[in-house]
């Protein structure tokens, strides 16, 4: 199989490599010509056998929009576009409809695995028509870990379902990380704990909380036992927000995932206007001293 | 009526004044001799008519313990001690039992009103025996706002009930302040809002959220429209913690009050170990950049 | 002054009455002809002096959209439409632009006060151009409580700012109600509290938590001391959701308001899929018994 | 090595079996004579070689207190008691001091692994003196999974540190389960998801959220794809509460773990007094209809 891959960043670069190791032929395009196989999307399209399969792996939002638009112009009826990026599921219907006007097929695919995917394989969640997914199956099989397909690949449902599942996956990820992190802070604050890294390490094999994230936590503490070189500023990439927005839209309580999202927001505040106000109120009613502003 | 008042700090000093304005005779004692009427608790006890009534208004915990212990030694059978401080309700049984061994009566009384109590009167919540509360009623009537007694005084229940009610009152207070503060931050962040202080001011008369705390919020913004001179570090005085501990002990969800408590904890962290860990984990799995530690 | 009022439901009906008591002339229209003054919007438009002022007080969303559309057709250049309903602030720009195409002016106005507004007056938050707001000032003055204008009316900012302020107001309202409600549950669960309604009643005059909502809480307990006739199912009207969505959009932590929103979602679940899963997991790892499904 | 094991319930029964399979000699006692090797603690003490090692695996609180008390009477100087149950870390100092009066040593050990421990081995976290832990090492090595000791056993710190680590472990566990459960509910509510169990199954190998709990979640859905036979009532065993209490005691925000705890409290309420109050308040200010009580 020979397919095109647009976007050779942190994720796409490794995915090309993993696909090639599995014996697939990949033509990769990126705006960064140092990593690209071809000079343009036009050249990529020209290089592929028909019906063409093009995997898009670029940042969600405007960049994905632009790539889909260009593919809509350059691809032909019967070709297939797979959006493997982190697009919001609501975008998928729009992209699918745009491409369908020219008879181009569309599949959305959530991809998890991070920088370890090259080595371990990626977890894949696809949305779209069964026949389109069947066409792309050699790619899915190349990217996912070895072993039973159903342990690392799923056809979740119709268009958008793959990204929806990935969005929720990431929301869960927020909650898991926050839970471990709160536990870390509790242990780190307690003076009777004399082997903090060792405690997490000893959770890796027999306990209920063992997980891949725990393994990474142990690795992080091996590299920097007190996390002395790591700031407490945490970005969010959008999918946590979307998960909470979906919780709201569907009237579903999601307090743990939301707590994780808000903790990131807080981590980025130099100064909290809300807490200034609480301090001001305490001063007003109780005469409690306020601290000077930072 | 003539009663003793131990503790002439921010609260007690004003309470003595308010009681005197109401025509009561008050003998006040404080370790700070500049404000005290007598030089010692012994002198205070000697100055009071029997059966004596002594109102204790000192910091909860060890200081209240010590004062109760000294009163236990110096007072006589039939006297009455009222703990008007912010003692945890669990302490009241202990203090009552200690005093009861010598036939001294005990009432716990939650007092709310802050620095405005001198002018407005205090809200009072008492726990104990009906006959003891009846004895102290002239004091309660002097301290509370004018108007119907039931609008500002309540005999909540048995020993400890007054402090329990005050504890929950303060827990609610945490939640109310946090709610206003979150709304403040939302409005302050929105550029289409051009009159932020005016918005809060206009909520004071006709809206659902009008309250005394809102009036104080308006006052705070009049004094410092951007809260530029106020830091975002917020203390907690204990009763918020006890409220959440009671929620846990009684298996009652209290997410809003707890959110308010945790927001204060966060406000006091120079750096969050938990968020350092989340950042470390994101780096481990996704190669996301971390910030240098502060 | 003579203005038109479209929508004579729980809010609009009382607002017409309050405006009339203040000496204004009001022509009201509602689909319910029992309460309407005229038979159609067309008739309402015909009845008003030019430039016309029409206050829209109908449910947000499709119904407001339809009314604005019809007004756009029937009104003339220089007329003014005021949306006093609970429209999302994002709708205001759209409505204003639609009307502006015909030279019709637009003001958005958040209105708070509930069923008590007829008697107490309404708190008002307006967004739009200063000259348009000036035109409508006699209406604002009629609807708001007596006393200083700035205590119950504010020109918050540009188009949408009035509804934005009202949205945040309602978000705060969610947090305030949740805080009182958590405190209520804590007090109700404690056996040493023997006078629960009396405790809330005694908070009304001197305490830090006194507020209009507390007065209503006292009234509710007077009517039904154990809330025995009231179910625990709580609707949400949209503005709480929008507030949390704005918190997310602006990366502002809003844990107390969000807790209040999620508590309502929970209150409406017959059975929680999430908690079924937690129970299933506990059974899987620990052999803990599950309960049969309801 | 030959040691005594008191408590042969869900955990202890399997631990005896695992220790025996590893070649250790175990004398087990339980009040249930069907599973016990000896008829009394006295008989167990008599059966053991000196210095004796006795592992206590009974419910925390009164039962552990009683067993420790009896061991204190029946054991001799130089013997060692290991509390492997879920005692609160604050109990450990008390138990250690009680035993120390007779020269009996004490180690606390958190044990994780649930019903799968027999097969997989248990994660172990020990607190106490290094020499005492060395004595018990053959037991630890028998109970933990094969492989490197440090991946499943840790000497966390002094007396109580083992149970403290286990407490935090369980707090994290609450947060992890809640996070997966919220994600489950979000996916279950979305109609574009047509293969819900398959989605979780596909997360098992390549994704960031893969974990042992996820494997169990997949297993639960295999057994009952809609969780139709499982109620949404979730108990808590105490350690989640203690974790939040420690967060409060140390002024550490723990919003995700606390959300998980409160979700369990909510799951057990037939009717929420707090939400009845919110409904009552909405009725009071806005005339919103309330539902009849259940």
TrEMBL record, chains A, B, C, D:
<dbReference type="GO" id="GO:0004616">
    <property type="term" value="F:phosphogluconate dehydrogenase (decarboxylating) activity"/>
</dbReference>
<keyword id="KW-0311">Gluconate utilization</keyword>
<dbReference type="InterPro" id="IPR013328">
    <property type="entry name" value="6PGD_dom2"/>
</dbReference>
<dbReference type="InterPro" id="IPR006115">
    <property type="entry name" value="6PGDH_NADP-bd"/>
</dbReference>
<protein>
    <submittedName>
        <fullName>6-phosphogluconate dehydrogenase</fullName>
    </submittedName>
</protein>
<dbReference type="GO" id="GO:0019521">
    <property type="term" value="P:D-gluconate metabolic process"/>
</dbReference>
<dbReference type="InterPro" id="IPR006114">
    <property type="entry name" value="6PGDH_C"/>
</dbReference>
<dbReference type="InterPro" id="IPR036291">
    <property type="entry name" value="NAD(P)-bd_dom_sf"/>
</dbReference>
<dbReference type="Pfam" id="PF03446">
    <property type="entry name" value="NAD_binding_2"/>
</dbReference>
<dbReference type="GO" id="GO:0006098">
    <property type="term" value="P:pentose-phosphate shunt"/>
</dbReference>
<dbReference type="InterPro" id="IPR006183">
    <property type="entry name" value="Pgluconate_DH"/>
</dbReference>
<keyword id="KW-0560">Oxidoreductase</keyword>
<dbReference type="InterPro" id="IPR006184">
    <property type="entry name" value="6PGdom_BS"/>
</dbReference>
<dbReference type="GO" id="GO:0050661">
    <property type="term" value="F:NADP binding"/>
</dbReference>
<dbReference type="InterPro" id="IPR008927">
    <property type="entry name" value="6-PGluconate_DH-like_C_sf"/>
</dbReference>
<comment type="similarity">
    <text>Belongs to the 6-phosphogluconate dehydrogenase family.</text>
</comment>
<dbReference type="Pfam" id="PF00393">
    <property type="entry name" value="6PGD"/>
</dbReference>
<feature type="domain" description="6-phosphogluconate dehydrogenase C-terminal">
    <location>
        <begin position="162"/>
        <end position="290"/>
    </location>
</feature>
<dbReference type="InterPro" id="IPR004849">
    <property type="entry name" value="6DGDH_YqeC"/>
</dbReference>
